[in-house]
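Why run this: before we spend reagent on co-expression, it is cheaper to look at a predicted model of the complex and decide which construct boundaries make sense. The entries below are exactly what would go into the expression plan.
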Amino acid sequence: MTFAARRLRIGFAAILLALVVLFGHAVYAATLGDARFLSGYMLLALVVFLALYGLRRRVPFLPLGSSARWLQAHILTGGLGVVVFAVHVDWTVPRGVFEIALAIAFLVVAGSGVIGLFLSRYLPARLSSRGEDLLFDRIPVIRREILERAEALVMEATTKAQTSTIADYYSDRLRAFFDRPCNFWSHIVESGRPRRRILAEMTDLDRYLDREERRVLGEIRGLVVAKDDTDYQHALQSVLRYWTFAHVPMTNALLLLLLVHVVAVHAFA
Amino acid sequence: MSRSPSGGKDPLGIDPYDFVGGVTPFDADYERPNQNFRCGRERLWRKRCQRGPSVNGACRGTTECTPALRGGRYECRRRAAAGGPCSDGPLPDGRCSHSHPPCAPRRTMRAMRSRLTFVVSLLTIALIVAFLGLAPDSSARLSSISPGPLTGAHSNFTSAKGCVACHEPHGSGAASWLEAAFVPRPEGISENCLECHKFDGEPLAPHNMAALTIKASSSAMTDLTCTNCHTEHKGIDADIRGLSDAQCNTCHQKKFASFADGHPAFKPNYPHDQKSSVWFDHASHFGKHFIDDKYVERAPKMCSACHQVQNADLRVEPSSFEQSCASCHADNIPARELVLWTWPEILDNEIDQEEVVDLCGPTRDQFEAMRDRLATLEAGDLPDEPEEEEFYGVSLDYLSPFAAFILGVPSDDVDEYGGPVQSLALEVLEDGIQPLAERIDDLAGKPVSEDMFARLSPEVVKGAFCAWAANTEYESPADPEFGGWYADGVGIRYKPAKHAGVVPKAWIEFALAAPQLAAAQGADEDEIERAEIFRDSIIERDGGVGACTKCHSVHAVPAETPEMAAAIDAETEGGEAEEPDAEADAEAPAEDGLEVLDVAWQFRQADVRPFVHYSHAPHLNLLGRDMGCKNCHVLDYEADYAGKMKSFDPLDFVSNFKPIQKETCTECHREGGVRQDCQLCHDYHLNPGFKLEIASHEEDAS
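The model came back. Tokens follow.
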């Protein structure tokens, strides 16, 4: 099954389930049942199942189904959870202090999840379209290697040409660029302007160099391109990871608040 | 590991990735992204060490290897990627000869997220603990746990007692909350609701009617509570009384989409299926009297001339008698007198005349006879002994129905009533009207005679009975021009002066109850029949006192049982109804199905549809208050309205208006038109109201 077909199937299933939930809730409410308990326990079950995905990732060795299947179920359940949440709060803004805190926790988790889903669908295509697929944790090593290679080339040019033109330029303009991740937001918005600006400067420098220096500068130009692609990978992969800093901690807070909410609701029923 | 280059090579032909080719992750620096720490040297030197930190975050890069003891010698074990065994070799004590200062390992992104998760969880728990630590009744705790403001009517409930004003109380600790949450409790919120709210009937039965059964399509329906429909904490302006059409359809077997689409047709006589409280024949008035030249000037020109449309709701009450009826019917009232007593034909005078003289003084004839006798004695002669004359009673009338009923004698059998009437006459001469009043009060079981004999002059009573006891007619000193009690000839009468008099009202109410009161006293059939004759003489539509029942409807109502009376008393006093007394039941005058007659003194709407409400007001404004009435209320000149009014059965009734059809309503209340949901016209509860105890609750709270 193709990715598009799978996405279509999941989308259809999510819509169907949401309609079933809405209809069932309306019928239960019409039959004088306390529909708040129905939607509440449904939401609790969905949230617990969603949280189990995090545990599943911690025990990959257990035969609990593929992570991809779990992710599909997580996305489907999350979408359904948003619908059940809306039904549970009666499509309005909660009024109590605790209820508002609980709703905020849910919305942060759900919102970050939706953002994460979007990023996980959008960014990988961009990452594949530019540069090599790098391991995020290895990017500092690669950046260091590029730096060392560039500095070796600068030393070579200085020694052979007996001039400090490239060394000066490197010291003034390129050292900071090679030393740390740069142009984060430019990479996020897919802007190539910083990269073109450096390459243009190097082209301007070309006419002041002799043949050997031009060869070295050409190799440094290649390293600039490699460093910029590495920064691109770093920026996009950072975004792919940072959204979980809202999603995962707030999931725990949500579970704790839910526990109190369930006890309070029954104690005052 | 993939090493494919980027989208294209550099213009100078340099592959920027060739310098990292061929290196696998585990040949290179230490990389364990799934562990908690990474090498700290990367931060210092932009380059990580080969060994990496321990799982606990301790730096392991202080030496380049851990020498191994083999064959009595320590050998360097530095990895090939780090340059292979060093030339210096291990120190004699087995330590690596290349030592470095330790780094400060850094947490991985995964570890930082875990730590953030831990901190957020800790903060959440701290907030929850802080909340539990708040004083149970503190406003901070109440406002924290409350899921939202109460509606306006309930908004002050928590000020005195907090949540327990409605919710079952429980302890304030976490354990108490858990126990309250999961240990079933017998009483719910409904019990507290019913401390103030009351309904006619079972409060938690469907429609407050215990006899109704419901089709249990939901488990919740078999155990109804107030919160099935009314949920609080939705804000001060929330409407928590709403019920959806779907909820109605859930229980009702006849299901339909809307009022216009599927609602059953109205009943054949709707809405005139019970006798009206005021008898007014619209058809004869509009069809005959109001077009008569004698009355046309006084005839109302529009409906609002007689009906108070300014206060229109379910009722559009008629205006007062004085405003609507008096111009034509005021003279009918004094023309219908009440006959309290008629001195009947007496065959044998059993009254001791000397006693009469003692009580009343001599009559003129007696006085003149005594004077003649004295004059004869003064002249020295002996007076002649008075001759025994044959007795001829001064009256040839029958006993009045009231006198026959109260004395328990037939009104037309002179042998039967002669003795009792004359005995009563002596009692009246001695004590005035009191003997009659006591008999009435004893019969009624309560003091009713005060109103019945209001403003009855003792002089009139004594004067009349003195005359009759002396076998003479009573001569009234003046005509009763302004109404009231008077005696004349052989009768005592009451002439009503105006509408809504106290005396006629009291007599009619006593007369209506007379047959049941007699039965309660163990009367035989004859006595009950006499009570009915007395009752009929009073409530006769054409001849009854004040012509009251010519307009005020007399109808049968279920008799009040002892249980009902006890419940009403308990309700009035705010106490518990007592258990019915079996012995009292055995003597109770009322039985199931027994009916008594009642009279409708005030205009009232027939209450045969307790779950239906309707307001005329918006319809009058919409349709116009005069011609608009005729859109729905169409006169039926063929209906036998007058004939049916003679019956006491409130349901044996024909209106002189044609029934209203559902189609009249669906002209506006339909799809795309005006509202047509169930609650627009129907109520769920049976006469909802409030208990008197609400006031005492408020006092407690203060």
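Chain B is about 35% helix and 5% strand. The first strand of chain B starts at residue 37 and ends at 38. Bring this page to Monday's planning discussion.
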